[in-house]
Specification:
Blueprint lengths: L3 E4 L6 H12 L2 E4 H10 L3 H12 L5 H13 L7 E4 L5 H13 L6 E6 L2 H15 L6 H13 L4 H7 L3 E5 L4 H12 L8
Parallel strand pairs: 1-3, 1-4, 2-3, 4-5
Helix pairs in contact: 1-9, 2-3, 4-5
The chain binds adenosine monophosphate.
Length: about 190
């Protein structure tokens, strides 16, 4: 069982790489963004609680996010491995995830951070907005989401770095090239960067 966290700012290509990784390794995909979007679309009680927060581009409070995540893990006791996409985004979330994994006799084995500059992220999201029409990608929310990443989420990286689990991959390049670099890490073939 391999559990992987795919990390990176909005527009880094986490969704695209997740699809390819799932096809290759059979991960159960847990995207907290997709889960929240499902809840808001279906107008569930949770959806009602988070709709405005999401629409503003802010992070949903840890308490809500962690509870939803736990529920999702409990739904998949037979998973061969999980791919976490968009979670954790804060240090308390990372700590909670480690605890959940530990209580199931497992762990987060790899954290792969897609390294993409803020400028590239802005260009990609602007392009994606024209095709996907996602409510949270509207112009005024974009700044907030990027700010949330660079002011809060980025602090999760030292947490994993201290535990020796952080792997950084250049997120700019061809989709297949980036995918190859991620698979080399998972398959243990990556050359450690000194
Ligand atoms: P995403 O598609 O992953 O960028 O997520 C869309 C939105 O869902 C974010 O802008 C947040 O409002 C919310 N969200 C998703 N994942 C998390 C998380 N791990 N912690 C807090 N909020 C989240």
């Amino acid at each position: 069982m391999i559990n992987l966290v795919l990390f990176g700012p909005p527009g880094a290509g986490k969704g695209t790489q997740s699809e390819k990784l799932i096809a290759r390794y059979g991960f159960v995909h847990i995207s907290t963004g997709d889960l929240f979007r499902w809840h808001t679309k279906n107008d569930t009680p949770l959806g009602k609680r988070v709709k405005e927060i999401m629409n503003s581009g802010a992070l949903v409070p840890d308490e809500i996010t962690i509870a939803m995540l736990k529920e999702e893990l409990d739904k998949n006791p037979q998973a061969k491995g999980f791919l976490f996409d968009g979670f954790p985004r804060t240090v308390p979330q990372a700590e909670a995830l480690d605890q959940f994994m530990k209580s199931n006799g497992s762990a987060i084995h790899f954290v792969v951070a897609l390294n993409v500059t803020e400028e590239e992220v802005r260009t990609r999201i602007a392009r994606r907005r024209t095709v996907e029409n996602r409510a949270d990608d509207e112009e005024e929310k974009l700044n907030k989401r990027i700010t949330e990443y660079f002011s809060k989420t980025i602090h999760v990286l030292p947490y994993y770095e201290q535990k020796g689990r952080l792997n950084t991959v250049n997120g700019i390049g061809s989709i297949d090239g980036i995918f190859d670099n991620i698979t080399r890490i998972i398959d243990g073939k990556a050359t450690p960067v000194s």
